[in-house]
Each structure stands twice: as C-alpha cells, then as structure tokens.
TrEMBL record:
Name this protein carries in UniProt: Mycarose O-acyltransferase
Keywords associated with the record: Acyltransferase, Membrane, Transferase, Transmembrane, Transmembrane helix
Gene Ontology process terms (BP): lipopolysaccharide biosynthetic process
Keyword Transferase applies: yes
Membrane-crossing residue ranges in chain numbering: 33-51, 63-87, 108-128, 158-178, 185-206, 226-248, 253-271, 277-300, 312-332, 352-371
Length: 407
C-alpha cells in the first residue's frame, strides 16, 4: 500500500475547461477509500462468521456476506485505474512485473506460513490441495471448494490470483486500450459493464452440483465462475483501465463523489435482493468506477473528499496487510470460527461486542506490523534493480507507485 502522499496540488480555477488530466497528481483520496473497502470486507467476514454462530438458522447474514463482494469489486476496479494512472512509456515490462510481484508475494508468503502454523496448532488438516496451489497463487484457477475455501485456511488470498493475472496482462492490455479513440471510451466502458452483468446468465449452463457449503440455491460451479474465476474478474480490472483513460483524456462527466457513492450503495441494495448467483454479480462495478474517477478528479483539483486526510491515508496504507491478516484473526482469534462447534455457540450482545471489537483491534495491529516490517522493507529492498537507486524519501515518492489493490 502507498506511503504518505505528496500534498495535493492547488485547486484549479472553476472556469478551467475540460482537458487531459495531469497524471503526476497524487491521489490521497483513493488511498483512504482503499481502507473503506478493506473495512467493509472486514465487517462482512466478521459479521457473517459471528452471525453464523449466534443465529445460524437466520439467513439475514447474507446481507453481510454480500457486502464483502462490493469491497472486492472496488479493489479490482481500482487496481486497473491506479496502474493506468501511473503508467509511463519509459517503464519496462520487467521492472513493472518486478514491482508488482515484490508488492504481493512477501505479505502473501508470510501470512501463508502463519496459516500453516495456525492450522497445525489448531488441529486443522494441512493437505496438498489446501496449501500448495496457494503458494504460487494458482488457487482461483482450480474450481475446488477445498482449494479456494478450505476450512481454516487464509481463503481471501484467492483474490491475489486475480491480481497476479492483472499484473501479468497489464503491459499488453494498456496499449490496446490506448488505441481506442477518445470519443469511444464511454462506449467501451458500457460494453465491459454489460459483459460483467451477463456473467451470471452464462453461469446458468454450468453444472448445478455440488451446492455451496454455506447454503443458498446456487451451485459451486456457478459461484466459482462469477466470483472466483480470474478471467471473469478481469473485466472489472479492464473497467478501471477504461475509466482512468476517460479521466486522463479529459472525457470525465464531472460527477461528484457523493453521487457516485450513492449509486454504489444503491447497486449494493439491489444486489441483496437478487436470487442465488445473481447476488454475486458485480452490479456495483460501474458505480464504483465512477466513485474512483470522481475522487481522483477531486484530488487533482485540490478539493476535499473526506478520504484524503492523514489518518485515512495511513489506514489505506495498511489496508492490503489488513486484508491479508483479518481472516486468520477471525478463525483463530476471539471469535474462534475455526472451532467445529462454532455454529452451535451463542453470544450475548455484550459478548459479541467484545469479541468483534477485539477481532478488529487485533487485525489492525497485525496489519500495521505486517506493513511496517514486511511490506515496506521488501519494497525498499527488491522493488527496483540495484542499478536503479530508490528515491530518497517517502515524501518524494508517488503513493500510487506503491499500490497493490486486493479484497
């Protein structure tokens, strides 16, 4: 995650006509928004796993679980947007891939090692299927519940499989998007959005067995195709690239951050009412892309969004680490979701408040430690070849250059 941003540039006069945007501008609001998305995922998983123990017969927990998909969609769209924003013609594929791999693998391997230790001490079977594909971030390519969502594993790491695909393909996809004529960027954005919305319909041709272990009327194959399959999620990444090009080329429609946020909330509200696999459709993909573009535009103009303050930026910096550690805390921490009798436990309101509060506090502390002692040192040591000296201070380094966006 990025470090402290360079102060935002002064506001432009209101009368400035639309035109190509200066990509050198920093985007602190997007750093802050990353924490909002990560916190939604944390609330979603914490609330869902607690709810399953407190009231397993009540399916209202689906509202919490689906909320996490909104945060994940935000990360995937933002990943495409940020990488496009900071892309330079002088960069090479090898250097780009090096930075991206160094960004995700140290945190991933450290949390994977911690997962294996916790599984052993917690009495969870360590098998080839629930560990080996994860080492190489291949798990989402394998349509197996045990591989992707094995009990006691750090299952959210599956999204890094998608991010790895995004990073490997970006140097080839961006030139294609740049060839699109400016006046057709919105048309392509609409086309990709439509493709995202058709995924649940395509999934209907897949086998209807086995069904999801946590309930619902959809099969595992449908859920995997819409939610886990990297090529399906690639559409959201491309959507982020297109919207970034729209802003950079001066084709932004001028929507305010608040209106875009309301659209995203409305998309989530509609999604919660959809049946089966349609509830996992990325209905919020376009509204979230608009929110990202609106926040970026506000930062360029020097306007305040409420997300670019010092505290929000710091929280955004540790959001990747938070995403990587929170599920382990849920499984092996105060909630003890890994326990076989978790679904038979009952909590009072005060007990729930205590356990959820502790879970969040422990997750934040561990996220800071992972960011401070693994992520940052790895980036300083290996993100650039020895022949390319690092920039002297964090204040001089664009935050977007150090972004890794995951659920």
């Amino acid at each position: 995650m990025p470090g402290a941003p360079v102060p935002a540039p002064p506001a432009e006069p209101a009368a400035t006509p639309p035109g190509p945007t200066d990509r050198r501008s920093t985007l602190p609001s997007l750093t802050g928004l990353r924490f909002v998305a990560a916190f939604i995922v944390l609330i979603s998983h914490t609330g869902y796993l607690f709810y399953m123990g407190a009231a397993p017969e009540d399916n209202h927990s689906d509202y919490l679980f689906v909320a996490g998909s909104v945060g994940l969609t935000f990360f995937f769209v933002l990943s495409g947007f940020i990488l496009t924003w900071v892309a330079r013609d002088s960069d090479t594929r090898r250097r780009f891939w090096r930075r991206r791999l160094v960004k995700i693998f140290p945190n991933h391997l450290v949390t994977l090692a911690a997962t294996v230790v916790l599984m052993i001490t917690g009495g969870v079977a360590v098998t080839v299927s629930n560990t080996l594909p994860s080492v190489f971030l291949l798990q989402s390519w394998i349509p197996s519940q045990e591989v992707i969502q094995g009990h006691g594993t750090n299952s959210p790491s599956w999204s890094l499989t998608c991010e790895l695909l995004f990073y490997l393909s970006f140097p080839f996809v961006l030139p294609l998007v740049r060839r699109i004529r400016d006046n057709r960027l919105w048309l392509w954005t609409g086309g990709v959005t439509l493709a995202v919305l058709t995924l649940p319909f395509v999934a209907q041709v897949l086998p209807d067995q086995p069904v999801m272990w946590w309930g619902g009327g959809m099969s595992w194959w449908e859920y995997w195709f819409v939610y886990h399959f990297p090529l399906s999620r690639m559409l959201e990444f491309v959507l982020g690239i297109l919207v970034a090009q729209i802003v950079l080329k001066g084709r932004w429609i001028g929507m305010r951050t608040g209106w875009a946020a309301l659209l995203a909330v409305a998309g989530y509200a509609v999604t919660t009412q959809l049946p089966d696999v349609f509830a996992w459709m990325s209905l919020t993909a376009l509204p979230l892309a608009l929110l990202i573009a609106a926040a970026a535009t506000a930062d360029v103009r020097g306007s305040r969004t409420g997300f670019g303050g010092r505290t929000m930026v710091w929280l955004g910096e540790i959001s990747f680490a938070l995403y990587m550690v929170h599920y382990l805390v849920l499984y092996y921490g105060p909630v003890r979701a890994v326990s076989p009798d978790h679904g038979m436990q009952t909590w009072t309101f005060l007990e729930a408040l205590r356990d959820i509060g502790l879970t969040m506090a422990i997750s934040l502390v561990l996220a800071w430690l992972l960011h401070r002692y693994v992520e940052e040192p790895a980036m300083r040591r290996w993100a650039r070849p020895a022949s390319v000296p690092p920039k002297p201070t964090a204040e001089q380094q664009r935050p977007a250059d150090r972004v890794t966006v995951t659920k």
